[in-house]
Amino acid sequence: MAKNNNSLKQHVFNMLSAGSELKEVKRFLTSKRLKARPAVLMIHEQAIAVQNTEYLNKPAYS
Questions:
Q1: pLDDT tens-digit profile of 16-43?
Q2: Cβ(43)–Cβ(29) under 8 Å?
Q3: With contact defined as beta carbons under 8 Å apart, do 1 and 36 qualify?
Q4: Which of 34, 42, 55, 60 is the most exposed place for a label (fewest CB within 10 A)?
Q5: Do the Cβ atoms of 30 and 39 come closer than 8 Å?
Q6: What number of other Cβ atoms are within 10 A of residue 57's Cβ?
Q7: Contact 52/60 with Cβ under 8 angstroms?
Q8: How far is 28 from 38, CA to CA, in rounded Å?
Q9: CA 23 to chain centre
Q10: How far apart are CA 54 and CA 34, in angstroms?
Q11: Long-range Cβ contact pairs of 7-10 (< 8 A, separation 24 or more)
Q12: For the chain, what are the domain ranges?
């Protein structure tokens, strides 16, 4: 597995926030020696985190 998992998670979060496609993010992770299933798990965890931050940053009444 990749050495620094936290920096990979942060990079995936930034890629998803910027609107990258899931396929592109998975390709990035597998190029960093992360196997496919843990890569998909990390992508989904970070996608949920992106959704939560977008929800929290949305104004209550608009």
A1: 999 999 999 999 999 999 999 999 999 9
A2: yes
A3: no
A4: 60
A5: yes
A6: 7
A7: no
A8: 13
A9: 11
A10: 27
A11: 8/32, 8/34, 8/42, 9/42, 9/45, 9/46
A12: 5-56
- The answer to whether residues 43 and 22 touch, using CB atoms and an 8 Å cutoff, is yes
Mean pLDDT within 1-26: 89
Structure tokens belonging to residue 49: 């985190």
Q: Is 70 exceeded by the pLDDT of residue 45? A: yes
Quote the tokens at residue 12. 């995936």
Do residues 39 and 11 lie in contact, with contact meaning Cβ atoms separated by under 8 Å?
Answer: no
Name the 3-class secondary structure at 21: coil
- Residues composing the chain: 62
Tokens 């910027």 map to which residue?
18
φ/ψ (deg, to 5) at 54: -65, -40
